[in-house]
Write a structure and sequence with these properties.
single chain; alpha/beta; four-stranded antiparallel sheet; about 35% helix; elongated
Length: about 325
Amino acid sequence: MVFIMNPDVTREQINTFISGWENKGFSTILSVGTEHTAVCLIGNTAAVDLDHVVQTSGVVLYGKRITERYKAVNRVVHEDNTIVRTGDICIGEGYFTVIAGPCSVESEDQIIQIAKSVKTSGARILRGGAFKPRTSPYDFQGKKAEGLEMLSAAKKETGLPIVTEIMNQTQIDLFEDVDIVQVGARNMQNFDLLKALGSLKKPVLLKRGPANTIDELLMSAEYIVSSGNDNVILCERGIRSFETMTRNTLDLSAVVLLKQKSHLPVIADPSHASGIRSLVPPLAKAILAVGADGLMVEAHNNPAAALCDGAQSLDLDQFDTLMRDLKNRAQTEGKII
């Protein structure tokens, strides 16, 4: 249940209104937007007389019931689009932010070379896996803490913020120099990790699991936001279907629905969605066309020799060509790259 406050009420009146509900055992979320201020009531609201509250509170303009289980990430509660910032880079309204880099950090020279190249092409954030969750225990598992040091070296060399995947909450202290913490598809419903990241004061990039619904993705985001961190970026990265010609199936409708249902920024990952290098550029353009706030793409200086996911990685020339195409298309879409 959400209450929209009268525009002339004071913050003291709003605080009194909130305290009254919390004293009755409810939890609340306060959302201050450009158009209105909303108070979301969380708990068993079945017995709450909505009309009576509106008529007698003296501070409520109108109220409505929220049928979805997710509240804090719901656009009904927070009408304005959230813009997530890292340094001077924005992910959200009006921007199409490109995140690029290798699936896995392999050496300091490699990640610095890639970082310099993708930055020149127009990428704003560097990605690279230090910890790699793999289906097989015999596959390359990443450079781990050493990989984080290599990413930090690339950040120092280029000024690019870095995003990399965390495996569990015990690793949080290792991520001090990481600008955006990625929750991978396999960890989307690691609820202990999500709650721990809720107390972290830096952005979280949350990837959709290959077998998870849009509703489940939003509920995972709810864990983070309701725990105190509203700097969440949603990422569509393909879902598992009956199709076997691609690694996964890119769900472009999810991008549109997520933008309608939630105020959080939404990006997509065509590399993991397709698993095929030649499909990445056209899918990236489609992601821009449907209104996403950004793109996460794998780029490597030598995909044929990559230790992880070389078949879906663009080489640096291919990434540069893609960026030039995206910049031209972004102008017609009213986006800034």
